[in-house]
Amino acid sequence: MLNIKPIHTELSGAMLVRVYENRSQLGAAAGREAAAAIRALLASKAQVRIVFAAAPSQNEFLAELAAAPDLDWSRITAFHMDEYVGLPAGSPQSFGTFLREALFGKVSPGTVHYLNPAAGAEAEAERYGRLLAEAPIDIVCLGIGENGHLAFNDPPVADFNDPLPVKLVVLDEVCRNQQVNDGCFASLAEVPQQALTLTIPVLLSAQWLFCMVPGASKRGAVTRTLHESISTACPSTILREHGDCRMFVDTDSFGAVFS
To answer: Which UniProt keyword terms apply here (predicted)?
Structure first.
C-alpha cells in the first residue's frame, strides 16, 4: 500500500485541512483514515454508527473504504444524510441507490437505515429522527456543495441551531444546478425541488467528521469555507468549529499552486 502524503496541511479554526495532488490521492487518504477511525471505535464499543453522503465527490473515498481490510461491517449501523422527494422508486438518482451500489452492497453493514419519503416526507422525517436519536452518531462522512451546503441544508434553510433532526426542505437553484453539473440529471427540470435532509446540529454531533471535497467546481465553496465569516450564508463555515473535522481537498478545489 502506497503511503500517500498531503502536499500541504493547515488549520482553519479547529478544522484540519489536507491538500492532495489529485482526487484519487484525496479519496485514498481519506478512506484509509476513516477506516482507521472505524477500527479504533470498534475496538472500544459494540456498535458504530456512521452517516454517509451520496455524491460523485465521494466516489474515490467510498471505493477505498469498501476495500479497507479488517473492518467488521456487521457491527456498523449506516445512515445516509439526505434524499430527494418525488423520485420514482428505484431511481438511479436516489441517494439510497447510490450508496447501495457504491458501498453498502459491497460491505454489508449490520444495519442500513434508508431514507424513504415515498409514503410521506414529514412522517419519514420523524421516523428517521427517532432512529438517529437512539444512540450517538460516531462518524459523519460528508462533502460540501457549490453553495456551501451541508447535506441539503442550503443557505436559505440552513440553521445552526435547528430544533429538528431531519426536515423537509426546498432546494435552491444553485444546489439543483449542481446536480446537473455533476451528471446526475440531464436538465434542471428533472431535478426534484424538495428533499429530506439531516440538519446541521445532527451532522455536527458526531465525534469525527471526514469531509471530502475534490474538484475545481468546489474551489469557491472551499475558499469560503476556510476564510469567510461563520454564518448560514455559507453553511460549511460551521465545520471550523467542530472539535475533530478533517477536510480533504485537492489542488483543484484548494486553488493554490505548490512547488
So the answer is: Carbohydrate metabolism
